[in-house]
């Protein structure tokens, strides 16, 4: 097939995680059998070497500059963006990334019959796809996470940093996702929970669950259990979901563990740590903030326990899958374990679940004290990834869906 992929996030290198790692690995496995054209955006951090690296994986690569973020202090600008959302039905973050020139290019390509399929990698790219195209070619939207569901959860869990805005946005986001998903031939989500959400919003849609995966070569199984009191948390540390998790754990849970185990350390691994995250290291010498690192798996191998204390955010989590692949025992919240069967009676125990402060302390204490339990979680977690969560398997499912 001749496939057009729309992805506003530059999907290379895949070591950046998030949208990049899912988009690149699905793209990578489509390349041998299909002709791929990718339209993406480049910010100032993307190097020429990265552009050259991505170009090798597609037949045609079209790049536009990523727009500068709007001035958040400009009140009139905020009012104008909200008014446009109210009138037009498309969120400000989607319209901010929209290029009329790209729209014109895509329109001409569809009119000329250049492609058999268009796929939008992440929902913000849906803006370029017109509803009437369903009668001309197959169109797919790969929803990495639901905007409506994420906003709703932030309000319900009290983790919203802009509660008034989110309350105003919530009904508009629901309307937006209903409208945007209904114009696609097929909708792809990452977890059963997301599927249930989308079926409530768009009952008539063709919806399929395709989980994330792991590159097992990049995340080999650990050679040994460190057996100390080291904890690790991995994630982009400028993303509000991860910032909230890091601050919650470092401020409310880590001090309680240090009372029992004075040698407990917490390493926060991720790019662009926010001021809030950097301040955690200043407040507690046991906290190490690394910033961007060449190899995440090295830090996973050095840690006795991997924590995923997310209180919001939806979709299957790469950080959880990668910790399991590396063989690092996990203590995680429900949000961090979404889409995974880890502690039900019908499966081997693969992770310990915690959502409250005391639950984290109890679970981590169990792992600190019990090397056999650590070994069980380590081996069972790795086995789960090998059997069900490789990118090869996900890409095969994706290709089948795209073919229709």
How would you summarize what this structure contains?
The protein has 404 residues and is an alpha/beta fold. 45% of the residues lie in helices and 15% in strands.
Which properties best describe this structure?
404 residues; alpha/beta; seven-stranded parallel β-sheet; six-stranded parallel β-sheet; 15 helices; 45% helix; 15% strand; globular
Radius of gyration equals: 21 Å
Q: Specify the structural class.
A: alpha/beta
Number of E strands: 13
Average of pLDDT? 93
Roughly how many Å apart are the termini?
A: 12 Å
How would you spell out the order of helices and strands? Answer: EHEHEHHHEEHHEHEEHEHEHEHEEHHH
Described by the principal axes of the CA atoms, the overall outline is globular
**Biggest sheet features:** 7 strands, parallel
Strands across the major sheet, in which order? 3-2-1-4-5-6-7
Which stretches of 5+ consecutive residues score pLDDT under 50? Answer: none
Helix content: 40-55%
Count, helices: 15
Fraction of residues in β-strands: 15-25%
Folded structure, characterized:
This protein is 45% helix and 15% strand. It has a 7-stranded parallel beta sheet, with helices on both faces. A 6-stranded parallel beta sheet has the order 10-9-8-11-12-13, sandwiched between helices. Helix 6 packs antiparallel against helix 7, helix 9 packs across helix 13 and helix 12 crosses helix 14. The N and C termini lie close together (12 Å). 42% of the residues are buried. With 404 residues, it is α/β, with parallel strands linked by helices. The longest helix has 21 residues.
């Amino acid at each position: 097939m001749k496939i057009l992929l729309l992805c506003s996030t530059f999907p290379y290198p895949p070591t950046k995680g998030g949208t990049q790692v899912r988009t690149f690995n699905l793209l990578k496995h489509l390349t041998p059998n299909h002709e791929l054209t990718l339209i993406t955006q480049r910010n100032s951090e993307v190097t020429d070497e990265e552009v050259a690296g991505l170009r090798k994986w597609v037949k045609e690569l079209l790049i536009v500059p990523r727009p500068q973020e709007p001035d958040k202090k400009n009140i009139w600008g905020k009012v104008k963006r909200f008014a446009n959302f109210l009138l037009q039905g498309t969120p400000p973050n989607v319209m901010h990334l929209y290029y009329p020139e790209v729209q014109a290019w895509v329109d001409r390509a569809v009119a000329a019959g250049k492609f058999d399929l268009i796929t939008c990698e992440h929902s913000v790219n849906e803006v370029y796809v017109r509803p009437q195209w369903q009668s001309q070619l197959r169109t797919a939207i790969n929803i990495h996470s639901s905007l409506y569901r994420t906003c709703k959860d932030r309000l319900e869990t009290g983790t919203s940093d802009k509660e008034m805005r989110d309350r105003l946005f919530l009904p508009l986001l629901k309307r937006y996702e209903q409208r945007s998903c209904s114009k696609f031939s097929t909708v792809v989500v990452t977890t059963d929970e997301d599927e249930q959400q989308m079926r409530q919003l768009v009952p008539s849609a063709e919806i399929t669950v395709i989980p994330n995966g792991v590159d097992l070569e990049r995340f080999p199984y650990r050679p040994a259990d460190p057996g100390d009191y080291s904890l690790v948390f991995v994630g982009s540390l400028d993303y509000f979901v991860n910032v909230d998790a890091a601050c919650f754990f470092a401020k409310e849970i880590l001090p309680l563990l240090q009372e029992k185990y004075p040698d407990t350390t917490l390493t926060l691994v991720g790019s662009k740590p926010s001021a809030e995250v950097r301040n955690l290291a200043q407040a507690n010498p046991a906290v190490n903030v690394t910033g961007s690192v060449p190899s995440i798996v090295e830090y996973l191998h050095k840690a006795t326990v991997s924590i995923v204390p997310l209180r919001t955010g939806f979709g299957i989590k790469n950080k959880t899958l990668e910790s399991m692949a590396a063989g690092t025992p996990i203590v995680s919240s429900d949000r961090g374990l979404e889409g995974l069967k880890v502690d039900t009676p019908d499966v081997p125990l693969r992770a310990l679940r915690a959502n409250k402060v005391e639950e984290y302390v109890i679970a981590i204490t169990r792992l600190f004290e019990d090397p056999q339990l650590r070994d069980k979680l380590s081996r069972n977690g790795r086995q789960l990834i090998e059997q069900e969560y490789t990118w090869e398997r996900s890409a095969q499912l994706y290709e089948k869906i795209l073919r229709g």
